[in-house]
Every structure is written in structure tokens, then in C-alpha cells.
Specification:
Strand content: under 5%
Order of helices and strands: HHHHHHHHHHHHHHHH
Largest sheet: none
Radius of gyration: 21 Å
Helix content: over 70%
Number of strands: 0
Number of helices: 16
Amino acid sequence: MKHESKKIGRWQGAGLMATTLLGTGVFILPQMTLNIAGEGAILAWFLLTLAIIPVTLVFAKLSAKLPHNAGPAYFVEQAFGPIAGRTIGLIFLFVVPLGAPAAILMTFQFVGSLIELNGLILLLTELSVLLLLFMLNYRGIQISAKLQFMLTLAIVSVVVILFGLSQSNSSMLLASDLPKTDMNLIMAAAGLAFWSFLGVEAMSHLANDFENPKNDLIPAMMIGTILVGLIYLACTQIIIEVPTTTELAMVGIFDSLLGNFFGNIGAQVIGVLGIAGGLATVNVYTASVARLVCSFSNDGVLPSYFSKLNAHHVPARALSGVLVIMGFVLTTVFVTGQDIEELISLVNGVFVVIYLASMLAAFKLLNKKYIPLIILGSLFCLMLAWGLGWQMIYAAVLITITVPFLWWQQLSQVDKQLSV
């Protein structure tokens, strides 16, 4: 699938990367990890940021060397064959029914800080987000890239100001009052926090949307990743140091530190940034999954209907199909009242498998000088799997279902060719 529409550059790519990673979790996940691990959450975020760097580098190197709409699925296919690659691609597709609702539900926690929505009105508002995503993606990813670069600057500015003010107010230190935690709790917090770095692999689906993937993709992904790690560390430290009783801690912190200057507008500022960040994350994943569906459609894994491109060289049919599924699942989640933290952990388990498979593929596809990075990335994935524990079961179930289906599909295609 060739893209002849306008391309994106290094800094736009860094903006896409950063807002994808910050997305729904920037003002929520630090608070969640503190609830799990107390002061150990700082160590969890620090270790996670260090550990994700080699993973990002490996993904960036693979994407620059082998730019393809299928991303990790293509890397694994090149290394281990079509069944392995398509398995990774399909479990990525299957994670959308859990990942998209979790991201949108987190986003609507910020909506709740601005306006009270309940019942059917809440569901209809959530579904209206899908229409916005369609409009953002219909003309190509470059429009979103520009908007998300500006959003990154806004989020970074707010966090830097809050962090600076929190550090200057030494009377607000609470770190000594937080309970000491063990490594198991730190790993559990890191397993939940891994949600914040989902998006590294999504950028690999967008490699063909870069003007010069070989020169711009690696810097864009590294700038975005390191910046995001620092922001999450800063947000966690701010919550530790500034006491608040609000449901969303960052809202109370904003009012506590800046209320004298701007009034109590924390709900509005944090709410708007949180909503925009959440939409940015879902937007990039929507674009990534649509391109993967189109690629699989071209390869005969999915119906050829989804391979058609519109006038802007965007797989509009695939895009529409993905959004329809999201709408169905959002409705189901609304009716059943599924817990958001369970959704996040189950989604993380699938991505651990995708990341580990990509690291293993890199052993065969990249130069031997990258082996130390690949080993570090692989160890990181294995430690995350340990931290998630039984929540890896969703990934195991998906693989168990997908592999036999792909094996049967391949045998059927061979039989058809022989009969012809």
C-alpha cells in the first residue's frame, strides 16, 4: 500500500509519538501506580523508562530498515514466516476491542471533571468520538501530526510549571509518609504503567507516512519516548509532594499550586488536556489498525474489501470497519460495566507478546551490533510478563485461537493453488 499524500517530518513524528504515549494516562496512571506501590511508584517509572529505551531503539531500527504498514507483524513474518507474522498481526487487531474502550473510558474521566454525563447521554457522547476520529483520519495522518505536536508542547508546559512549583514548596513533602513497598508491588505498578508506553509499536505501522523514515523515524521515536518517561516521573513526584483530596489528583494539585494566579480552573485545564491526549492516543491506534487491516486485506488474510484506498490514499473502508467494532464494544462495555484496570492489564499482556516477538525477530533482521539492545529488550518483556502474571491469559487464548485458524487458511490457499 503506497502513500502519496503529504508526509510527516521528524518533529511531527516526535509529537505523534509523545502524545500517543502520554495520551489517556498522563494525568491518571501516576496516581494509579502510587495506589499500588506507594513511593515505590517512582522506582517503577524510572526502571520502566530505562527499560523501554532499548525496546524503542530496536523498533525504530526495524521500522527504518523495513518500513511497512503491518509493523511488528511484518517484522515477525520476515524472520519466522507468514503464520508467525500474521499471528502477531491478528492478536494486535483483537486487542482493539479491549484497548480502545479502556482508552476512551480513561479519557471520559476527564470529561467528568468538566461536565456530568450519565446513562445513554454518556454512551452517545463516547460514540460521537468515533465520528471525530473518522474525520481526523480520512485525509491522512499529517493533520493529526501537526495538532498532536502542539498538544505535546501544551502538556509538557503544564507539567514543567507544576513540577517547578512543587519542588520550590518544601513544606509539602509527603514522600516520608508513604509506606515502603516490596519489589512485587513495584513490578505490579510497572505492569500497569506499561500502558503508558503502548504506542512504540504503533509508530512502526506509520513508517511509510514519514518523509524520510531512515533519517527521521529513530530520532522521532527516541525524543518522544524519553520525553514521556520524564513527564511521567515528574507527574508521580508532583502527586507525592502535593496533598490533595480530589478524585483526579492533578486537578487538585493544579488548583493548589496555581489557584492564586488563575483561580480554580484545574478541572478545565487538566480536563481539556486529558481529553485531547486521550483522543490523540486512540487516533494513532485507529490509524495504525486501519493500515494493518488494509495490509492483511492485500495479503489475503482478511477480505479484499478493506484494501481499497480513498482519494487521500487512506484505507477508508478499513478505517470505518475498525470504528464500527469500537462502537460495538463501547456499547457492550457500557452495558456490562467492565472494570477499567482489568481491561488495561489484559491489553498489556497482548502487547508484551507483540514486543517480545519483535525483539526475537530483530535477532535475525538487524546487525549483530544491536544484540545487546535486543537482549535488554527481551528481558524487559519477560519481566513485564512476570509482573502481569495470570493477566497474560488473554494473550495466550488469542494465540491458541489464531494459530490454528491461520494454519487452516494457509492449507486451504495451497489446496486452491494446486487445484488450479
